[in-house]
């Protein structure tokens, strides 16, 4: 866990694979979730709104149905009462009274049944209760409508029944003009059936549209039949905009006149033209939306956390082997070539690790080879140096000097000793193994001077060089073994005077030394052995031409080295190829 | 193989986390018991249309603003002892705002003492401001007295003696109403006020007082009752004495008996208050105050003069007969 955390912190610091994987994947995931979330949200909220609309419609439909059937029921009662009165002989008959009383008894919602004359006198009433004073019944709307339109049943608005003594009750009055049989002729009268408003009130009160929503009813001209907040409207604390619902008989619209956005749905009761109006508050519908958006928000947070968690784990898993590989390479960079453990991880990384290991093996091999070569070089250089102080050569030279002193050739002694001294100076040349061509030629010249003294002018020599090669770099002591070879094997046993010609020149961009003698020459067989180093000569320093060949190839590569052309009894030409390298001015 | 197992483990962990997340979410969504505010409403009496209408208004507001309403009321009016008991009970039950119609100052003091300083208190129906009370919602009783007196003067033909009867001498409401009456009479030279009388809230005592008053002041043309109970008592006694035609009565409030007398002629007019508005506004402002909103210090819910002529007008019916029975 801790490692994971550190991994994440590390990853953020640098633009690591882990960081890239984590961020890009998180980004993609978040975008996808966001997209899906927004799509779902819009779909859900649309559905939620649609459902709210439908729901309200259905509830109102239900209310309308209930109201319709209730009003139908009361209408039937009214017709029944009307029928009974029509059939009976006058309103004062005992039988009619009993029948009507029975109706009032069974129907709890019938408050009273009464028949009034056109002047407002009570002709008959059930239940029989004394009339109140000051009821102004002829001015009441139900009475007026029965007089104005005697053939149609009219429903009044809910009002307080103040006709009879007893409790004041909220009623809806049904009235119609009738004719009753009088003593002589039929008398026009008004039949009133008061229905308790409680039934309708209950019916509407039970309807809830959400927590705050409600249903109210208005009549044809906009008077409130039922409103749960009627009190508030009467005292002026609330206002209900009734003008719009009045215009429509069904449908729904959104009203935001009261500050809150409210969905108003309208249905009309066919029988009376009453309008049932459902009011639901949009913020309650929107609650669903808010819930969804809140859910999506938390889901997003949750997804981000989980994705970050999982991705940092996965990316750590992916990047760890790469880091390990990097660490291995770092160790190699710092010089530790022993790195050898295989790294486990993805296929690519494993392949990379394998290749790296193979590469390291190669490097190790090459390094071993270089070490071997360096050793060989050193050995051969040492051999050359040893050859310089070869006791045989020194002994012979000093012998010659003694002899020259004996015969009094002081000039020659001076020359020889001087050359010897120069020879050694150049050989040592302060421990450097690389010298200029000029110095090399100088060296071989002194060598030839000494040898010429020793061999009593048995041969002549000539050294020539192009100017441009003089400053080139060359390995030390390249020519001496060749010249030595030429003297010992080519000229020493020759009867005629010998001649050695040494030249240095540029040829095809390389430096070419040529040592030519007119000695005995050698057979091809010997020539090969000389180059391979397997030829064992008796005299000489023992270093041999092979050593020279070997040193050049170790220092400069396979493209350089020696090349011998020889013909028996005619002479030998040894060509020495080295690359043309100029001094960079580091010669101290 | 180890890696695959680890991945499987991780997948499992994630799935467990998702399930936990979901179950938490759904559990969080079910009930929100702490979200709704609670308003305690303490009135003076359990019964009576007046207080039932207050309660109706309060319930309307509670439904509209989606809050819990705790309703407390003693069995009898002016029972300050049990009302104090109810204040304590309400405090135990807990509330975010208190709406109280105190029987007397002791109840109000008790309520202020028990209520934590940040919880707003709103008084209904009882005048008498204390700085701890956020708002008074109710009738302007002085104005009510004035209206009653003006109506009476109109009824008696601007001339004659008027008597004033009330229960509860100590009540601030009654004093304000009396002052309103007196101020109107003071402007009118032709109308005189016979001595004002107060009795205990007792039907028999009110009847006796009325009888005495009429006997001692035979010329009295009108009686203004200062509260609902007095109105009923006075009307009953005047009817018993058969003087309903000669003595006009102006009543206060609209209990069914008063309405009955009003229609039948025993009472000429009544000045009604708006208890529904009191209940509604009381709870509304209580909620506002508990949410730290500014509420008006005094809200006059208004009064209305009702006589035989207008009592069945449709806009008055709902005020006079608030219940659908």
TrEMBL record, chain A:
User: What molecular function terms (GO) are annotated for this protein?
Assistant: kinase activity
Q: Start and end of every Histidine kinase domain?
A: 479-582
Give the species this sequence originates from.
Brevibacillus choshinensis
Task: Look at the named UniProt entry and state the broad enzyme category this protein falls under.
Answer: transferase
Q: What name appears for this protein in its UniProt entry?
A: histidine kinase
Outline the extent of the HAMP domain.
316-368
The record, for InterPro entries, names: Bact_2-comp_sensor_kinase, dCache_1, HAMP_dom, HATPase_C_sf, HATPase_dom, His_kinase_dom, Sig_transdc_His_kin-like_C, Sig_transdc_His_kin_internal
Specify whether Plastid is a keyword of the entry.
Answer: no
Q: Which PROSITE patterns match?
A: HAMP (PS50885), HIS_KIN (PS50109)
Where the protein is mainly located, per its record? membrane
From TrEMBL, chain B:
Which keywords does UniProt give here? Signal
SUPFAM superfamilies, per database record: Periplasmic binding protein-like I (SSF53822)
Q: What is its main location?
A: other
Where found in the cell? Cell envelope
Sorted alphabetically, which InterPro entries does this protein's record hold?
Peripla_BP_I (IPR028082), SBP_2_dom (IPR025997)
Q: Where in the numbering of this chain does the Periplasmic binding protein domain appear?
A: 42-294
PANTHER family xref list: D-ALLOSE-BINDING PERIPLASMIC PROTEIN-RELATED
Q: Which family does it belong to?
A: Belongs to the bacterial solute-binding protein 2 family.
Protein's name according to its UniProt entry: ABC transporter substrate-binding protein
């Amino acid at each position: 866990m801790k490692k994971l955390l550190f991994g994440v912190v590390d990853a953020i610091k640098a633009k690591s694979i882990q960081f890239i994987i984590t961020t890009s994947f998180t980004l993609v995931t978040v975008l996808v979730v966001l997209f899906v979330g927004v799509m779902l949200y819009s779909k859900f909220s649309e559905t939620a709104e649609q459902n709210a609309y439908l729901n309200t419609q259905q509830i109102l439909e239900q209310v309308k149905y209930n109201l319709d059937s209730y009003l139908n029921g009361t209408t039937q009662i009214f017709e029944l009462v009307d029928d009974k009165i029509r059939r009976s002989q006058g309103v004062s008959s005992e039988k009619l009274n009993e029948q009507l009383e029975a109706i009032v008894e069974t129907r709890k919602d019938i408050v009273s049944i009464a028949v009034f004359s056109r002047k407002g006198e009570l002709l008959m009433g059930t239940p029989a209760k004394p009339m109140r004073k000051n009821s102004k019944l002829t001015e009441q709307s139900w009475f007026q409508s029965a007089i104005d339109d005697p053939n149609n049943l009219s429903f009044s608005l809910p009002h307080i029944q103040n006709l009879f003594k007893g409790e004041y009750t909220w009623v809806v009055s049904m009235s119609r003009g009738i004719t009753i049989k009088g003593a002589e002729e039929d008398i026009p009268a008004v039949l009133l059936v008061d229905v308790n408003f409680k039934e309708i009130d209950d019916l509407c009160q039970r309807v809830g549209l959400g927590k705050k929503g409600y249903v109210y009813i208005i009549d044809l001209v906009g008077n409130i039949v039922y409103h749960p907040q009627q009190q508030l409207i009467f005292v002026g604390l609330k206002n209900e905009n009734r003008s719009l619902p009045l215009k429509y008989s069904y449908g729904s619209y959104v009203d935001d006149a009261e500050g809150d956005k409210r969905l108003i749905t309208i249905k009309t009761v066919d029988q009376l033209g009453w309008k049932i109006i459902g009011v639901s508050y949009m913020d309650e519908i929107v609650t669903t939306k808010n819930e969804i958006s809140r859910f999506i928000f938390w889901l997003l947070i949750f997804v981000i956390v989980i994705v970050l968690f999982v991705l940092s784990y996965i990316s750590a898993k992916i990047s760890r082997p790469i880091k390990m590989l990097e660490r291995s390479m770092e160790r190699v960079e710092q010089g530790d070539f022993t790195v050898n453990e295989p790294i486990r991880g993805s296929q690519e990384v494993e392949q990379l690790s394998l290749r790296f290991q193979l590469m390291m093996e190669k490097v190790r091999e090459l390094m071993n080879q270089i070490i071997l070569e360096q050793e060989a070089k050193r050995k051969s250089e040492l051999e050359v140096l040893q050859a310089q102080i070869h006791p045989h050569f020194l002994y012979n030279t000093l012998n010659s000097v003694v002899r020259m002193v004996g015969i009094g050739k002081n000039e020659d002694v001076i020359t020889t000793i001087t050359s010897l001294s120069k020879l050694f100076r150049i050989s040592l040349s302060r421990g450097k193994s690389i010298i200029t061509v000029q110095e090399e030629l100088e060296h071989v010249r002194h060598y030839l001077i000494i040898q010429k003294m020793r061999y009593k002018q048995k041969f002549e020599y000539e050294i020539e060089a192009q100017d441009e090669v003089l400053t080139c770099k060359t390995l030390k002591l390249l020519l001496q073994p060749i010249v030595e070879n030429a003297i010992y094997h080519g000229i020493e046993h020759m009867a005629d005077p010998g001649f050695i010609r040494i030249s240095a020149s540029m040829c095809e961009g390389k430096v070419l030394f040529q040592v030519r003698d007119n000695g005995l020459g050698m057979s091809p067989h010997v020539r090969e052995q000389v180059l391979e180093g397997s030829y064992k000569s008796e005299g000489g320093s023992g270093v041999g031409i092979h050593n020279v060949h070997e040193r050049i190839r170790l220092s400069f590569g396979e493209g350089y080295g020696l090349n011998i052309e020889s013909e028996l009894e005619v002479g030998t030409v040894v060509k020495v190829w080295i690359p043309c390298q100029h001094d960079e001015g580091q010669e101290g | 193989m180890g890696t695959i197992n680890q991945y499987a483990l991780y997948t499992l962990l994630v799935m467990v986390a998702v399930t936990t997340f979901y179950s938490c979410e759904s559990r969080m969504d079910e009930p929100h018991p702490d979200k709704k505010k609670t308003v305690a409403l303490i009135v003076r009496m359990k019964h009576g249309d007046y207080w039932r209408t207050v309660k109706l208004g309060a319930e309307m507001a509670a439904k509209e603003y989606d809050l819990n309403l705790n309703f407390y009321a003693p069995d009898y009016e002016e029972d300050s002892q049990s009302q104090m008991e109810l204040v304590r009970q309400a405090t135990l039950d807990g509330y975010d705002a208190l709406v109280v119609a105190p029987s007397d100052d002791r109840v109000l003091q008790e309520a202020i003492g028990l209520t934590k300083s940040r919880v707003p208190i709103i008084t209904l129906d009882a005048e008498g401001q204390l700085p701890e009370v956020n708002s008074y919602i109710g009738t302007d009783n002085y104005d009510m007295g004035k209206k009653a007196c003006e109506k009476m003067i109109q009824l008696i033909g601007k001339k004659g003696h008027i008597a004033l009867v009330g229960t509860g001498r100590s009540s601030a409401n009654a004093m304000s109403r009396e002052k309103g009456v007196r101020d109107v009479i003071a402007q009118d030279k032709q109308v005189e006020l016979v001595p004002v009388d107060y009795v205990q809230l007792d039907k028999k005592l009110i009847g006796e007082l009325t009888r005495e008053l009429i006997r001692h002041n035979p010329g009295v043309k009108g009686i203004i009752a200062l509260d609902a109970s007095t109105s009923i008592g006075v009307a009953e006694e005047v009817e018993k004495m058969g003087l309903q035609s000669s003595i006009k009565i102006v009543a206060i409030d609209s209990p069914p008996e008063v309405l009955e007398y009003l229609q039948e002629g025993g009472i000429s007019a009544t000045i009604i208050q708006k208890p529904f508005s009191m209940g509604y506004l009381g709870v509304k402002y209580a909620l506002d105050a508990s949410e730290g909103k500014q509420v008006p210090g005094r809200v006059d819910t208004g009064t209305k003069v009702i006589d035989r002529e207008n009592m069945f007008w449709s806009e008055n019916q709902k005020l006079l007969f608030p219940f659908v029975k």
